[in-house]
Write a structure and sequence with these properties.
Length: 250
C-alpha cells in the first residue's frame, strides 16, 4: 500500500448492491449520530442505488425516517439555464430520487441556483454552507476525466462555488440523460474544491470499468488540477467504494 492509500479507505466489491449498502451505512451512521446533520449530495447515476437503499431503510424504521426532518441537504452542483422543474435539473433529480420519499423540510434543502444572477447565487451558496457548518458527510461521484462536482480538469481550479464551462467530455457523457448532446447545458454552478474538502467525511462512488482510469489518476500519488479528484488525497477521511480492483494502486 502507498502512503496515499493508507489514508484513503477502500471498499472494493464486485457486487454493486453491497457497495450501495456500505455507503448507506455511513450516511445512516451520520443521520443517527449528528443532531442536525448536514449532508452533501451528488447526482448522476452513481448514487442512485445508495438513495434507493436510504429510502428503503428509512421507510422501514420510524426512528430513522424521523431523522430526515433534521437534515440540511446541500447539492454539489446544478446546470445553468435549466428551470428547477426541468426533468434533468439536479433540483428535480433530488426530489424524484430521494426527497419526495422522506420528511425533509423544503427550507432545509439547498441546490445551487443556475438561473438569475449567477455570481450572487454562488456567493449565497457558500454563505449558506458556512452558516450550516459544512457537510458532515459528502457523497461524490467521479467523471471519466476525474472531475468532482463540475470541477473540470484545468490549469487552475476554483476554491469556492462558481460558474464553470462544461468540457465536451462531460457534455457527451451526460448527453445520455437528454434527447441529444446539443440540449446539454454548456455551463454549470458547482461547489469548489475547497468547499468539497471542508466536509468532515467524504464517500466517493466509482462504478464500472469506465471510472477505473480516473481512480488510478486520482489516487496514484500526485495531485494535479488536471485531475480534480486527486485533491481528495489531501483529505483525512475519504472512503472510496468501487466495483473494480485497482492493482495499479497497490
Ligand atoms: C456529473 C456530475 C457529477 C457526477 C459525475 C459522474 O456530471 N456533475 O457530480 O459525480 O458527473 O456521473 P455518473 O455517476 O452518472 O457517472
Amino acid at each position: 500500500m502507498t502512503g496515499n492509500l493508507r489514508q484513503t479507505k477502500w471498499v472494493i466489491h464486485s457486487d454493486r448492491k453491497i457497495l450501495d449498502e456500505a455507503a448507506a451505512d455511513i450516511l445512516i451512521d451520520v443521520l443517527n449520530k449528528v443532531q442536525n446533520p448536514v449532508i452533501g449530495f451528488a447526482t448522476g447515476s452513481s448514487p442512485l442505488g445508495v438513495y434507493q437503499s436510504l429510502v428503503k431503510r428509512s421507510l422501514a424504521s420510524p426512528a430513522l425516517l424521523e431523522r430526515w426532518s433534521h437534515v440540511h441537504g446541500f447539492n454539489l452542483d446544478e446546470y445553468v439555464g435549466l428551470s428547477e422543474q426541468h426533468e434533468q435539473s439536479y433540483h428535480a433529480y433530488m426530489w424524484n430520487h430521494l426527497y419526495q420519499f422522506l420528511p425533509v423540510k423544503p427550507e432545509n434543502i439547498h441546490v445551487p441556483n443556475g438561473n438569475g444572477d449567477l455570481i450572487s447565487n454562488c456567493l449565497a451558496y457558500d454563505e449558506a454552507l458556512a452558516e450550516h457548518g459544512w457537510p458532515d458527510v459528502q457523497i461524490l461521484g467521479i467523471g471519466k476525466n476525474g472531475h468532482i462536482g463540475f470541477n473540470e480538469p484545468a490549469q487552475t481550479l476554483s476554491l469556492h462555488t462558481h460558474v464553470t464551462d462544461l468540457t465536451e467530455n462531460t457534455r457527451s457523457a451526460n448527453a445520455r440523460f437528454f434527447t441529444n448532446e446539443q440540449e446539454v447545458p454548456t455551463q454549470a454552478i458547482t461547489m469548489g474544491i475547497a468547499d468539497i474538502l471542508q466536509a468532515r467525511q467524504i464517500i466517493l462512488l466509482a462504478f464500472g470499468e469506465e471510472k477505473r482510469e480516473a481512480l488510478i489518476r486520482s489516487f496514484s500519488g500526485s495531485v494535479s488540477t488536471l485531475c480534480p479528484a486527486s485533491f481528495l488525497q489531501m483529505h483525512a477521511n475519504v472512503t472510496v467504494l468501487t466495483d473494480k480492483e485497482v492493482p495499479e494502486l497497490k
